[in-house]
Design brief:
CATH class of the largest domain: Mainly Beta
CATH superfamily of the largest domain: Copper binding periplasmic protein CusF
Oligomer: single chain
Helix content: 10-25%
Shape: elongated
CATH architecture of the largest domain: Beta Barrel
Strand content: 35-45%
Radius of gyration: 25 Å
Structural class: alpha+beta
Distance between the termini: 95 Å
Mean pLDDT: 79
Number of domains: 2
Largest sheet: 5 strands, mixed, barrel
Length: about 140
């Protein structure tokens, strides 16, 4: 029987390669786990709009209050149908006044004190066929 003899240089390269592979896998796993840091996602329907907060009702019936800040960014998500008959979507800048009770929302929030503070409020109309007058095109005069 022939015995395969490997040189120390080959073994060292192989060991370094295995450690590099392990480090790469660990960094990818840990990186994806920490991608949002301490951010919280709140999904649901707008139940109440206050001066400085929103109450969001989740599908399970739980209501969550999220505080609004001057730095909160509002984004309107509009679904569109293109000529190729495949649905597309577009995000448009918006403001708090564009948001209404019943709108669907995804809020990226940061825990602050005993509550949540919204960094971004992304919302869409509950029925995409409806166009709110304040969001539709301006009439020509």
């Amino acid at each position: 029987m022939r015995r395969l003899i490997r040189s120390p240089v080959v073994l060292e390269r192989r060991m370094k390669s295995q450690w590099l592979m392990l480090a790469t896998i660990l960094s990818l796993v840990c990186g994806s786990a920490l991608a949002h840091g301490s951010k919280v996602h709140v999904r649901g329907t707008v139940a109440k709009i206050g001066v400085d907060s929103l109450q969001i009702k989740a599908q399970d019936g739980k209501t969550t209050e999220v505080r609004l800040a001057a730095s909160t960014v509002y984004v309107l998500h509009v679904a569109q149908k293109t000529a190729q008959s495949s649905p597309g979507s577009e995000d448009k800048p918006a403001k708090l006044a564009d948001l209404a009770v019943g709108d669907l929302v995804v809020i990226h929030a940061t825990p602050k004190g005993d509550g949540l503070e919204a960094d971004e409020v992304k919302f869409s109309l509950p029925n995409t066929n409806k166009i709110r007058p304040s969001l539709g095109p301006k009439p020509k005069s």
